[in-house]
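Q: Convert this sequence to C-alpha cells.
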Amino acid sequence: MAQTKFDTKVLSVLNDKIQLIKTDKGAIYLVGPIRLPVNLYGETVIFNWYCWLNCDEVTENFERIIEKLSSANLAEFQQSSVLVYGDFEYGDDAIIRMHSICHTGDIFGSKRCDCGFQLKQSMKMIVEHGTGALFYLANHEGRGIGLFSKALAYILQENNYDTVEANQALGFVDDSRNYSDAIQVLKALRSKPVALITNNPKKLTALKESGLPVSGREPLWGDVSEFNEKYLETKVKRSGHLREEETCCND
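A:
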C-alpha cells in the first residue's frame, strides 16, 4: 500500500498533541489532551481525554507513525486511554483509578459484576475530589484473558465454577493483568503522589514497585446484588482483595 502524504497543516495540529514515551520494548505514543464532555449521572462534566498506542518503532517523526495507521487494522485491537480531571499535573492531591475494561459491565450494565458501577462511581469520586484520572485499560478484559475467553468462563461459572476456577480451567492464571503501560503514561502526566481507588493490593503493589509515590488508597463499595454476591466473595477469599464492609471496594 502506498504511503499517504499528509498536509503540513494537519501534521502541525497533530504533532502538538502527540507525546513520545520510550519503553523497554519500543515506544508509547500518547495523544491528547482532548476536551471530552461526559454525561455523569445526568450532569455534563468536562474531562481531558488521552489515548495511547504501543509501537515497536521509536521515532519523533510522528508522520511515520500516522502513515501506518490506515493499514494497521487498529480497529481490531483495543487501545487504552485515560480521562483526566482538574489540574492533574501540578495539583497537590490527586486520586486515580486503574479500571480494567469490562465489555459486559461497562457497556451492557451487567449485574454479574460491579464493574459498570465502579466505572461511573470512580469518575464521580474524581470530580468531587477536584483532581484525578481514570485509566481505562483495554487489554484487561476478564482479568486479562480476553472477551471470548471470558464468555467461556461465564459458561463455566453457570455450572458451579467460581471466577478463579473458571479461568484456571481454561488454562489461565487467576489474574494476568499488567499495569506497566498505564504506569508509564501516569509518569508522563504526573510526578506528584496519587491515591489509588481500589481494593486490589496487587494494583497498589504495581504502582509502588514502579517507583511512583503513592499517598494511599480510596475505597469504593456498592452495587452488591444477588447476581454478583458470589463473584465479590470470590475476590476476597480467592484473589486477596481487601474488604471494609460499608466503605470499601472490589475491582
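The domain at 75-239 is CATH 3.40.50.10990 (Rossmann fold).
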